[in-house]
Amino acid sequence: MSLKNIDNLEKILLQEIEAKGENTFMYKLHYEGILEYEKLDSLLDNCNKVFDFYYSNGKTSNYIEIARGIVLMFEHFLFLLYCDKDKKDVYKIKNYKKNDKDKLLDYYFIMRELTDKIIF
């Protein structure tokens, strides 16, 4: 993967980390209570590509901001899942279905693997 492609992926990840854009995965999840699986898949795929690049080619100047932001985003994602299940919490994921449980467990394990890749 070229440095130009990594620059583009890092920009995408930084936008996701900031969650300021209404079209980002975290904005939709946090503010609108909508879990967009396709966006999550894309986010995790981009993380994997960037972290593989870091491992093979070394860290870029954005490494610390991206690593920190991704870990915090994963934590917040898990926190929002918890809030959704807490009967006393008003936060709800609108499109969560009971049969999504296994899919969410898969995401947890992917996030664990990616977090391990970040710290090398």
Q: What's this entry about, in short?
A:
The protein has 120 residues and is mainly alpha-helical. Helices cover 72% and strands 0% of the residues.
Write the layout of secondary structure elements.
Layout: H1 3-18, H2 25-32, H3 37-57, H4 63-85, H5 101-118
Helix pairs in contact: 1-3, 1-4, 3-5, 4-5
Radius of gyration over C-alpha positions, nearest whole angstrom: 15 Å
- Count the helices. How many? 5
End-to-end separation in angstroms reads 19 Å
Shape: elongated
Strand proportion, as a percent range, falls in: under 5%
**Spans of at least 5 consecutive residues with low confidence:** none
Q: What is the ordering of alpha helices and beta strands?
A: HHHHH
Biggest sheet character = none
Q: Could you say which structural class the secondary elements and strand pairing correspond to?
A: mainly alpha
Count every beta strand, where a strand is a DSSP E run of 2 or more residues: 0
Average residue pLDDT: 91
Share of residues in helices: over 70%
Write up this protein.
Helix 1 (3-18) runs parallel beside helix 4 (63-85), helix 3 (37-57) packs parallel to helix 5 (101-118) and helix 4 (63-85) runs antiparallel to helix 5. The protein has 5 helices and no strands. The mean pLDDT is 91. The two termini are 19 Å apart. It is mainly alpha-helical and 120 residues long.
Key features of this structure:
72% helix; 120 residues; single chain; mainly alpha; elongated
